[in-house]
Design a protein that fits this description.
Structural class: mainly alpha
Order of helices and strands: HEHEHEEHHHHHH
Distance between the termini: 41 Å
CATH class of the largest domain: Mainly Alpha
Bound molecules: glutathione
Shape: globular
């Protein structure tokens, strides 16, 4: 059953945008935290990506969330591109993309690190959910090693003062806060002992309303 078309997901002729996603998806959460941090509201339609045939209702061939229903009636997927597009639509004073090219580079690097943390955690989770006879230990270990390397890299960047403070919560920080909580949610392990600065930073972001409001059910942030 296609839950989306039942609820009339035909694309609007223009104007209003909608976000399609789920509370559990960290990719969707990045977009929702961005919207909250920039004070923008948008209808959010929840789907179960594993049971709803979401692409039927949206004419989107990808079948992955988040899906943004755009002003022209078409769709846009890929969380990084969705946020980039939304930020370009924003009034200049509300934009989180820095004007300075070097700051853009720093931001994009942190966004990539966050995306890799999420991708690797998802891949590890899905591999671990396969019947044990079909699981590939190498694949799980490869993702764990990747997560460990990226965390160490971000810890080193923090030590070198390459991060803005918690008061300055830009696109890179949004994505990293979501990614670190996702690692804690789906791959809880003691990364804090090896990354004390990152751990303090993560704890400081915990109370932000944008993160609090989008916390997945069943997850309590680690202090
Ligand atoms: N690179 C994509 C990843 C999106 C993604 O994989 N979303 C998951 C939900 S967490 C999904 O829709 N999975 C369904 C599938 O793989 O069939 C992004 O950043 O938006």
């Amino acid at each position: 059953m296609n839950g989306l078309s039942e609820r009339g997901h035909d694309a609007p002729a223009g104007g209003s945008m909608r976000l399609i996603g789920s509370d559990l998806s960290p990719y969707v959460r990045k977009v929702r935290v961005y919207l909250s941090e920039t004070g923008r509201e948008m209808p959010f339609e929840r789907v179960d990506v594993w049971t709803d045939e979401i692409w039927h209702g949206t004419a989107d061939p990808v079948g992955k969330i988040p899906i943004l229903i755009c002003p022209d009636g078409g769709t846009l997927t890929e969380s990084l591109l969705v946020v980039d597009y939304l930020d370009r639509l924003a009034e200049p004073e509300r934009r989180l993309t820095p004007a300075n090219p070097h700051a853009v580079l720093m931001t994009r690097r942190r966004q990539v690190s966050a995306q890799v943390l999420i991708d690797a955690t998802v891949e590890r989770l899905l591999e671990g959910r396969r019947p044990s006879a079909q699981q590939c230990t190498d694949r799980i270990e490869r993702q764990e090693a990747r997560i460990s390397r990226v965390l160490a890299h971000e810890e080193a960047s923090l030590a070198q003062g390459k991060w803005p403070t918690c008061d300055s919560f830009g696109l890179g920080e949004i994505d990293m806060a979501v990614a670190l909580q996702y690692v804690d949610f789906r791959y809880p392990h003691d990364w804090r002992a090896r990354c004390p600065r990152l751990s303090v930073w993560a704890a400081e972001t915990r109370e932000r309303p944008s993160l609090f409001a989008t916390q997945p059910h069943g997850f309590t942030p680690i202090v």
